[in-house]
Amino acid sequence: MRKRDPLLAPDPGARDGEALLSPQTDIVRLAAAFIVAAVLVAALYLGRDVLLPLAVAFLIGFALNPFVSWLARRGLPRLLAVILVMVTVFAFIAGLGVLLATQVRALSTELPTYQTTIREKLSDLRAGMKGPGMLEGALETVDAVQKEMLAEPEEPAADGPQRVEIVGVAKSPFETAFEWLVPMLEPLATAGIVFVFVFLALLDRSDLRDRLLRLLGGNLHRSTTAIEEAGTRISKYLLMQLLVNLTYAVPMALGLWLIGVPGALLWGTVAGVMRFIPYIGPMISAVFPIALAFAVDPGWSMVLLTVGLIVALELASNNVVEPMLYGTSTGLSAMSLIAAATFWTLLWGPVGLVLSTPLTVCLLVIGRNLPQLQFLDTLLGSSPALDVPTRIYQRLLADDPEEAIDIAIDEIEASSLVGFYNDTGMAVLRLAGADHGGNSTAEHRLRVANGMDELLDDLREEYPADGVGKESPRVVCLGGKWHIDAVAAEMLAHALAHEGIPADFHAAGGVSTRHVAKLELEGADVVCLSYFSPAPAAAARQLCRRLRHRFPHLRIVLALWNSPPDLLKDGAHRDLGADAVVASVDEAVRRMQHMLSPDEGLAARTATEPENDPGRIDALHASGVLAGHAREDLDALAKRAADVFDVGFAVISAIDAEREFIIGQSKDLPGMTTADGTVVMPRKQAVCDHVVASGEMLVVPDTERDPRFADHPAITLWSTRFYAGAPLKTPDGHVLGALCLLDTRPHALSEREKELLGMLAADVVSVITGEEAGEPAGREAASSPSATVGQKVPE
Hints:
Helix content is 59%, strand content 8%. The protein is α/β, with parallel strands linked by helices. The chain has 5 domains: 48-111 and 179-203, no CATH class; 220-378; 386-463; 464-596, Rossmann fold (3-Layer(aba) Sandwich); 609-769, 2-Layer Sandwich (Beta-Lactamase), CATH 3.30.450. The strands form 2 sheets. The protein has a 7-stranded antiparallel β-sheet, sandwiched between helices. Strands 2-1-3-4-5 form a 5-stranded parallel β-sheet, with helices on both faces. Helix 12 crosses helix 13 (350-369) and helix 22 (585-596) packs across helix 23 (598-605). The two termini are 57 Å apart. Mean pLDDT is 78; it is low at 1-21 and 777-795. It is found in: Membrane.
């Protein structure tokens, strides 16, 4: 029977309406998308007279809304809050305008006195140049034009032809006034429209938000997140931009005043305002003070000082002030910033250039939250389009192992060697395994194999295992069947050696059941079998049986990198004939450490005491929480945490010198209880003590996969597979205990969820101490901004 082409013919087994789309349908959709985009661009261009005031108004509304909301939260009616904010802004602008007008008037009266200095400098420049040059020709042309314009017209001869001049009808004063007023009224009318829109946007913000939610439709959660993120990011962007401009304008005005440039306040203000215009604004603002310094000073010192001041302020603003104020991320890539500036300038002119960054941020946020428009996030966002494993795998496919090595080293420097192998290296091998029998060709498979060998050789040289290698290996890692299994075994061996465990590996093709007798494993304590197959049970069971027969003293660990969950359950390793099963490099390293050094493994379960432990314990007892203070409130917070994160239960623990006290819980728990019903346990058996010791959040996605907690007494008592603990840190830096999430199923927490857990922990501290808590746990430290040009957009 002829094989059906899945791209052209519908699947007969599919339900009605689920036929696969043909290439022709994709082309029609692409054409429709281009038509819609062209219509939208045309509408933006043709409707710019209406859309520009709207966009400017909403931009100003984003900037003023935080102040209006602040006044409204303090009991002032929103109408009065809007009026107060707008009157304050207008009063400030008017006062600044009057001051600047005074500066301009004083400067205009002094300009004629600078003509002599300018001509003398130009003459000196002309004399300093050998022979006639471009500057001299330009000066001669200016002089000739000036003489021509000032020359008296010659009177015609009395007997010659007379020149006839046609004089038009004189315009009335009304017509003259109308010609002058119309150009002036147009910007005033636009300003009035903007004023009305700003007032309405601030006053009816809730109604506008509801209407926008209705327009976005779809998932209400996504739409709400998109609107909140857009509003927050644009408001913060404008506030940070204002602060950056102020930190530039004030030193500029002060520096020009000290140098002696006239109108220092005026040029500082111009510099601050012009920096709202990306790219060209700072250059334009620098021309005026430099030109004036050239005109005022007979020498060159004032010009050089002014240029030095501007260069120093630009360097400080771009490299110190902006990264410090903007924080974590620009949000937009360098290419998207430049493309957006060009696009909006072509559509809406200079005002479009000012609005380009906020408008592009809105598009970026929409693309992040609406699945249909996710291509906008890919086109505009600063985050890499491909994750690190995909980038390395693509470089290997492209036969570019050098760049793959550079990416790997950068990732290792950002985390660790074990972390790279655990998160990135194995992900690369999974991509290669998934493509092995499908998309990849023989040439691609050869490139990946050679590239991985070169990558691992380079990493072993770059990150050698210091002090390990002379003694015989205690762990031998063996590839199960394919070359990819051997590469995984090589990664694991390097990770073990880097962590101080003597380890070796065998290349592919040497560990089949027929070659077990040829293996030299004398002196080894553990052998680790590496499998990437999704169904490794039969092959692993057979190989374990032969290894047991040949080397009965060995302990066998199965590394099942791509195994189904049923083979990872507790006790499944015994059915396969192994002593343990691991699913990640990190777990394998910890498991080997526990196997080879049981005493160190037991010590790892017990957390070390923090340096401020005595003061921490005194603060805990002084809070009165161990005596039952705020127990009902803490139980309610634990219940809220369990509901919000959808876990089995949550507890709030406090740890003193010897014991852990459960001072808040979402449900009744087993354990030793005191007279007032508080659950207690020895401090050495408390998982939360690790949180107290480090002062940082601890997340264990699956306790069975972490040897430190696989058979931990508290974990066993409460039958938990997932643990997450956020420290209860006081403003003084004392960690009183932890807010803990626990469940019988494995979980994973996103970065945003970790931040929310830290915020809940801060609320718990506020209840315990009656004070504001310190920095919430889980919030990542601000990293360096990404390398972009132009204006930066904070997260």
